[in-house]
Design brief:
The chain contains 10 helices and 5 strands. It is of the alpha/beta class and about 220 residues long. The protein folds into 2 domains: about 120 residues, Rossmann fold (3-Layer(aba) Sandwich), CATH 3.40.50; about 70 residues, Winged helix-like DNA-binding domain superfamily/Winged helix DNA-binding domain (Arc Repressor Mutant, subunit A, Orthogonal Bundle), CATH 1.10.10.10. α2 runs parallel beside α3, α7 packs across α9 and α7 crosses α10. InterPro entries: CheY-like_superfamily, NreC/VraR/RcsB-like_REC, Sig_transdc_resp-reg_C-effctor, Sig_transdc_resp-reg_receiver, Tscrpt_reg_LuxR_C, WalR-like. Keywords: DNA-binding, Phosphoprotein, Transcription, Transcription regulation. GO terms for molecular function: DNA binding. It comes from Streptomyces dysideae.
Length: about 220
């Protein structure tokens, strides 16, 4: 059973999401919260698999709540999915940096919401190639880092190659084709890189790849 915590300051939206999720045999909404502080308390008490959290809320916003969840070893198994009205913007980028597994726009169709919850519960990032490209575009106009991050020394050459391909928006199957290895081996390289870099998911790998200088932003 996938246990979900809903955190949003709009009761009507929470009710709608709850009604949809509770219809599924493998998903259970364990609690609701109206702000980030209450959501954090419930996350620590209930240890849900997924926290669906609004990015902009009173008291404690979704970014700070995500940051605190990601930093708490007791919540290592909790996956945060950001809810937003605005699509990809600077707030979403900051949430991904803070440790969110991905984000959903609130007008998402029901089938996509259910799929997203199940994907996040497996520990996979909700970061489709189109979203990865938006992350990349965030860096296109940024100056090239003046040095390569020391964290790269922890990675093998193959792990660096895999991370660079993740940053280009490639799926595991595409990375396997590019590296001429099996998809399972590609996934192993990515998972080992995530472990060494203390990254929670692919979203943080993309951010790391650009901020460390492993991948350089291209000119438009």
């Amino acid at each position: 059973m996938i246990r979900v915590l809903l955190v949003d300051d709009q009761p009507l939206l929470r009710s709608g999401f709850r009604a949809l999720l509770d219809l599924e045999d493998d998903i259970e909404v364990v609690a609701e919260a109206g702000d980030g502080r209450e959501g954090l308390a419930l996350a620590r008490e209930l240890l849900p698999d997924i926290v669906l959290i609004d990015i902009r809320m009173p008291v404690v916003d979704g970014i700070e709540a995500t940051r605190q969840i990601a930093a708490d070893p007791a919540l290592a198994g909790v996956h945060v999915v950001i809810l937003t009205n605005y699509g990809f913007d600077e707030y979403v980028f900051e949430a991904l940096r803070a440790g969110a597994a991905g984000f959903l726009v609130k007008d998402i169709v029901p089938e996509d919401l259910l799929h997203a919850v199940r994907v996040a519960a497996r520990g996979d990032a909700l970061l489709a190639p189109s979203i990865t490209r938006r992350l990349i575009n965030r860096y296109v106009t940024q100056p090239l880092p003046t040095h390569v991050g020391p964290e790269l020394k922890e990675l093998t050459n193959r792990e660096r190659e895999a991370v660079a391909l993740v940053a280009q928006g490639l799926s595991n199957d595409q990375i396997a084709d590019r590296m001429v290895i099996s998809p399972m081996t590609a996934k192993t390289h990515i998972n080992r890189a995530m472990t060494k870099l203390h990254a929670r998911d692919r979203a943080q790998l993309v951010v790391f790849a650009y901020e460390s200088g492993l991948v350089a932003p291209r000119n438009r």
